[in-house]
Amino acid sequence: MPMARQPVRLTYQDYVHFPAGRRWELIKGQPHPIPPPNRRHQEVLGRLFMLVARYLDANRGGHAYIGPIDVVLREDDVFQPDLVYVSDADADVLTEANIWGTPTWVVEVLSDPYRERDKLEQYEAAHVPEHWLVNPYEDTLAVSLLDGSTYAEPSIQRPPEVVRPHCLPGLDIDLASVLRC
Question: Residues 76, 133, 155, CA angle at the centre, nearest 5°?
């Protein structure tokens, strides 16, 4: 009886040679194409990023990036989160080309629920302290905070809640304004 073949686990070295013209992520060494974001996704992400950028300009602390930027958690986990923040204390993960290691805070705006669940597991395994999943279709925000080595049960926030990233004290984010609902 023939043995079942194990899928080949690709690495970052494979990833950088993927054909241009399409965005990809590696989840557990498996390639996943990233569909282009829709208009609502971009509006929500843009409003959220503007709040974070203004906060960082006023407080001069850390680095925020809007996707696409590669976050290499491990050789076989390469993601392009929608928004990523790296504190000054974690800045050793910043390279000229990407973020190589564990960022401080990751925000994903929902596009593919199945893929996002797999990515959440990998963010948790890499000990990303704070993960937000914005669902612009249900007007919710799931906030996952690392508790030891695992994420605590996510806190589900809805407008008119004002939320505060744990890594950016003093930044108030009005969900109704970000989601425009």
Answer: 120
